[in-house]
Amino acid sequence: MTGFDVIQWSAAFLWCYWLVLAAAWFRAVARRETETHVAHFVSLMGVLVPVVALSVLMILLGASFGIPWVVVLLAITIPGGLVVALQLEVSRLSEPRLEVELSRLALAVAMTGLAGATVLL
To answer: pTM score, two decimals?
Structure first.
């Protein structure tokens, strides 16, 4: 397995985990009062600001110094940042429990495997 394969599978796992966490965030917000939905969305956007800033900074530094592998790093940092932001918001909205987190991780692993099997076929 090459380094590119590791990055590709890691990025696929992070995107799948992001989907699982996005569904958890939507469910947690749906359980709240309707009047607070906009506030929760604004809070999520506030947590996503560092992700966007890091991505833009990496692109600018890569372009300025001629570093070609910055694009490869973006394949990990963008979904990784989204996962961290959503994880922070989901844990703020609902009580984090080990069983729930492990089931979310297992679902993300299964989705990654299914996506990989689909690509290989």
So the answer is: 0.86
Enclosing domain of residue 98: 3-120
Locus of tokens 């993300």: 108
Q: Nearest-5° angle of CA 47, CA 67, CA 6? A: 70
DSSP H helical ranges for 1-121: 3-30, 37-65, 70-93, 98-120
- Structural tokens at position 47: 């947590």
Q: Report which of 3, 7, 16, 26 is spatially closest to residue 74, judged by C-alpha positions.
A: 7
What total of structural domains would you count in the chain?
1
Pull the structure tokens for residue 119: 């690509």
Length of the chain: 121
User: Mind listing the pLDDT tens digit for each residue in 72-108?
Assistant: 888 888 999 999 999 999 999 988 899 999 999 999 9
CA-to-CA separations, 79 to 4, 19, 35, 94, in angstroms, rounded = 16, 10, 29, 22
